[in-house]
Design goal:
binds beta-D-glucopyranose, 10-stranded antiparallel beta sheet, globular, 28% strand, binds 1-deoxynojirimycin
Length: 811
């Protein structure tokens, strides 16, 4: 069952039935100021950090779900309704929600009145604009009242839900004309306030929630709205809100547009006040003026659209499969940008107070967006590297506002450092900017310790080398990529977290996932060293890599697939000898991507084992058989019910590792089959089962052991986005940036006749046509550039601004 449809021309998903199986959301904002918005206008806004600077309140896991947001109410006599259906839930005559690239348009029609709200954050602006157009589609003149509504969050979203003994006394507001200011705590340490304004005279307003709603009412029945009587309430403590009331009169056919601005302002200490107790509103007024006219708003909206046209112009596929094209050209790239901005902090599954920017996560995310915003990618890499420790290990996450690392969700994940090599080499290949290697970057944000970024990469490599276990394989630490394989944790206390609890200081538990990762990125580092003339470093690294390959072949092969780990007691994990968890996906993925044992036939065997044991209707499972009992020496993984999360779900992040492994073998049909199985656009018809947005990936789809296989959870903020983009664009379609060329090596289903891609690379545009007349999966017969046949399959780098026609014939 579907709840809407794709509009590819507009780059929108159009929801036409508001009763989706879960709130289907979108993101507003691209830098500094962000909003989450659901298809019924639920959600919240924040400046930079969803924890420390939250503007509007949102109640996670509320009943009913997704209550609270940017709401409009229309009081048309005894008929009260909302254009987004919620919160009032009056049946609408027409409803649609168009989620587009950083904007959302919600339209409702009731009794001849149409209300269309466009929500977006203008570029380089610390504000959301809500442009509401009201149209009288009936034959009679109409008069009604329009109410707006947002509820302020008292800045620190964690305290806001927690410290009520204090908060209920701190809220402060000011009302000035048609602008309502949230100035809570501004008097003392804060240099910031927020406001919600409209470009129309008010019939009244409210700033105190309980007065506006009336005690015991929900957002669906505010007393002020039902009665059509704003109370002009002034909040002192309790729960401040901003609600405007505007009288609307419309002749038949007439339309009126109101522009609401929800903004954030910072003032320097000496400029905080206009006079005693009255905040300095100059910057807010500037913002309000900018959007006072429909023309100002339209210009900003066009700018945003043009910005996205630009971002999405660097890789454009025409494959003949509209679902594939819409994933590659629109939604997958869009999701990658969102994961760049938010990492794992704020979604409808991440509350914005739990996690910040993850070290491993943000490094991996980079391969999904580096071609869109290379300069910002550069800064991100340097920010991440600055949270590394001198021994090469790293904080697991940092807060975006402070850029300081913290251990709130644990530390000592031994895969973390190596991801820095993936991101840095991806960045240099995309841009040719080797100067990043010379940047001076501190350790643990201490400027005195600064060393070159190259040195950081070296220490990443050495962190693995310095932490090998009894079999010469990497020690796992707290956990590797799989947060829940906690081999040193031994937790039997329900009150502690698997992620942060003290670990046994064992030096036995080893990871085959990190072993594969080390071979892959160690090799990558050696290649980088060679490219910049550091032959000695390259040779040293290559020796470590070779030793690791030998260790994997000697101690990491279980007969038909790669082992997953050795536990604290030195026992095998992910082996035929185990009763449960005989095979895991991560080590098959990383070791086959690295081609370990390729000539000995181990890659084929491992991938065939994946096919046989881990494949199901909804994708590839993380492990099999699922754990049915808690194993204290394994930790969190065995605590989950079968088929969920890290215990035998389709954990979508790692499926592309197998796709890429398949391309190492040249099996394009399998690679693409795995791609399709989890790509959301191909799952649109089963939206009722899948439950989440059909335009973005979810982290997890319940596996075949689960109660409801196929049901997804945790959409948007997942490494799945970047890895699938990386797998399809660079390994299946096979267009791969290199240090000195654009390399072409597709691996596609043999049935395909070909495809074309327009790729902007280092400023030049390549129109690449791949032809497959012999219906092969992989292998290149001939490549021509601008009509001339070239030797090999590496397209030389052309001058910026030039355009080139590339024809690739497979066979
Ligand atoms: C989840 C992981 C997640 C981790 C974050 C675990 O409970 O299963 O997927 O990455 O928490 O700390
Ligand atoms: C989600 C986390 O964000 C990511 O870092 C981790 O690798 C996966 N869960 C697997 O546990």
């Amino acid at each position: 069952m579907k709840f809407g449809h794709f509009d590819d021309l507009a780059r929108e998903y159009v929801i036409t039935n508001p009763r989706t199986p879960y709130p289907w959301i979108n993101y507003l904002g691209n830098e500094d100021f962000f909003g989450l918005i659901s298809h019924t206008a639920g959600g919240y806004s924040f400046y930079k950090d969803a924890r420390f600077r939250r503007l509007t309140r949102y109640r996670y896991n509320n009943v009913p779900w997704d209550d609270g947001g940017r709401y409009f109410y229309i009081q048309d006599g005894d008929c009260v309704w909302s254009p987004g259906w919620k919160p009032v839930r009056t049946e609408l005559d027409e409803y649609s929600c168009r989620h587009g690239m950083s904007y959302t348009i919600i339209k409702g029609v009731k009794r001849g009145i149409e209300a269309e709200a466009v929500f977006f954050v203008p570029l380089n602006t610390w504000a959301e604009v809500h442009r509401l157009t009201l149209t009288n589609r009936s034959r009679a003149a109409r008069a009604f009242k329009l109410f707006s509504f947002v509820e302020w969050c008292l800045w620190n979203a964690h305290d806001d839900m927690n410290n009520l003994q204090r908060n209920f006394s701190t809220g402060e507001v000011e009302v000035d004309g048609s602008a309502i200011y949230h100035k809570t705590e501004y008097r003392e340490r804060r240099d910031h306030y927020a406001f919600y304004a409209v470009n129309a005279p008010l019939a009244g307003f409210d700033t105190d929630r309980d007065t506006f709603l009336g005690p015991y009412n929900g957002f669906d029945r505010p007393a002020a709205v039902i009665e059509g009587k704003p109370r002009n309430s002034e909040a002192h403590g309790w729960s401040p809100i901003a609600s405007h009331c505007v009288d609307i009169r419309l002749k038949p056919g007439e339309a009126k547009t109101l522009v609401f601005v929800l903004g954030y302002v910072e003032n320097a200490a000496e400029e905080k006040w206009e006079r005693k107790g009255v905040i300095n509103k100059a910057k807010a007024r500037g913002l309000i003026d900018r959007f006072a006219t429909a023309a100002g708003v339209d210009a900003a909206f066009q700018e945003l659209r043009a910005f996205w046209d630009g971002l999405l112009s660097h890789y454009v596929l025409r494959s003949g499969d509209e679902r594939l094209d819409r994933m590659v050209n629109i939604w997958n790239q869009y999701q990658c940008m969102v994961t760049f901005n938010l990492s794992r902090s704020a979604s409808y599954f991440e509350t914005g107070i739990g996690r910040g920017l993850g070290f491993r996560d943000s490094n991996q995310d980079l391969v999904g967006f580096v071609h869109q915003v290379p300069e910002r990618a550069r800064q991100r890499i340097l920010d991440l590297a600055a949270t590394q420790f001198a021994d090469g290990s790293a904080y697991h996450q940092y807060q975006p506002l402070t850029k300081r690392g913290n251990s709130d969700i644990g530390g000592n994940f031994n895969d973390d450092p190596l991801w820095l090599i993936l991101s840095t080499t991806a960045y240099i290949k995309e841009t040719g900017d080797f100067s990043i290697l010379d940047e001076q970057v501190p350790f643990d944000n201490d400027e005195h310790t600064a060393q070159s970024h190259f040195e950081h990469l070296k220490r990443s490599v050495h962190h693995t080398v310095d932490n090998l276990g009894p079999h010469g394989l990497p020690l796992i630490g707290r956990a590797d990529w799989n947060d829940c394989l906690n081999l040193n944790c031994f937790s039997n206390d329900p009150n502690e977290s698997f992620q942060t609890t003290g670990n046994r200081a064992g030096r036995t538990a080893e990871s085959l996932m990190i072993a594969g990762q080390f071979v892959l990125y160690g090799r990558e580092f050696a290649a980088l060293c060679r490219r910049i003339g550091k032959e000695d470093e390259a040779a040293r690294t290559q020796e470590h890599v070779d030793r690791m390959v030998n260790a994997v072949l000697a101690h990491g092969w279980d007969g038909a697939w790669f082992l997953r780990a050795y536990d604290f007691f030195g026992k095998k994990v992910g082996s035929k000898e185990n009763e449960e968890g005989k095979i895991f996906i991560e080590s098959q993925g990383l070791c086959t991507m690295a081609g370990i044992g390729l000539v000995e036939g181990k890659v084929v065997q491992a991938l065939d084992a994946v096919r046989e044991r881990l494949d199901c209707d909804f994708g590839l499972l993380l492990n099999q058989p699922a754990f049915t009992r808690y194993l204290i020496e394994y930790g969190e993984i065995s605590s989950y019910p079968q088929g969920y999360k890290e215990n035998a779900a389709v954990f979508c992040h790692n499926n592309p590792w197998i796709m890429i492994g398949e391309t190492v073998l040249g099996r394009g049909d399998r690679a693409f089959e795995y791609y399709r199985k989890i790509a959301p656009a191909y799952l649109e018809e089963i939206s009722d089962l899948h439950k989440l947005e059909p335009y973005v990936y979810a982290q997890m789809v319940a596996g075949r052991d689960a109660y409801r296989p196929g049901e997804a959870k945790n959409s948007w903020l997942t490494g799945t986005a970047a890895w699938n983009y990386y797998a399809i664009t660079q390994f299946i379609l096979g267009i791969k940036p290199g240090y000195d060329a654009l390399d072409i090596d597709p691996c596609i289903p043999p049935a395909w006749d070909g495809f074309t891609v327009t790729r902007v690379f280092r400023g030049a545009t390549y129109d690449i046509e791949v032809r497959n007349p012999r219906h092969v999966s992989k292998g290149i017969r001939q490549v021509s550039v601008d009509g001339k046949i070239i030797a090999g399959r590496s397209i030389p780098i052309a001058d910026p601004g030039t355009q080139h026609r590339v024809i690739v014939e497979l066979g």
